[in-house]
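Review form for a predicted model. The reviewer records the input and the model, then writes brief findings.
Reviewer: anonymous (R2)
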Amino acid sequence: MPETGRSVLRLVLVDDHEMVLHGLTAMLAHFADDVVIVGTATSVEQARRVIDATAPDIVLSDVRLGRDSGLDLVRELAATHPTVKVVMLTVYDDEHYLFQALRAGARGYVLKRIDAAGLVGHLLRVADGEIAIDAALAGRVAMSAARISSGEFWAGANHGLTQRESEVLALLVAGHSNRGIASTLVVSEDTVKTHIRSLYRKLDVQDRGGAIAFALREGLFQ
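Model under review:
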């Protein structure tokens, strides 16, 4: 039974694979006292319509949604539906994706190998205002926090670059196109262009060649 005084959580599921949506629906049906699925979507555009129509408590979304990015959906909902909490459910066992999701506004990051009871437990904690992080990533998160607190910052931090701008610059140096950077970082190409313009301004360069030359001259990624 749900905790006394707790309403059943209303969920929208977002994944670009119908099979995953069917599997989650069947899996969570056993926890009807705690959660109810009010809608599903396979793309960001469809998710917008479903969320507008159903007003869920939590959106459970994959990081990658075909050609779309679940992280862009998180950012959009933070602006348009600030009371809706988003939890990422993904196969990406990578703290960099986790940090991207949390920076975007996600309230949880869970791996798809989790069992139903564990997933529902995470959702209930998020509903209570906590941040839910898969146990498989918790140790690496703690180590990253320790490195940052000890002064080990990302390349380019002393030049004013954010961590994301540093990631973009590293991919520029590696020869990736804007589309390739967007795919690697799971963001839109417009988002990549915004980061590139910002790092150009901070490094006082005019173009991609100038940014790469600056990075090599300063030894940022040695």
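Findings: Strands lie at 9-14, 35-41, 58-61, 64-65, 68-69, 85-90, 108-111, 132-133.
Further findings: The chain has a mean pLDDT of 88.
Recommendation: see findings above.
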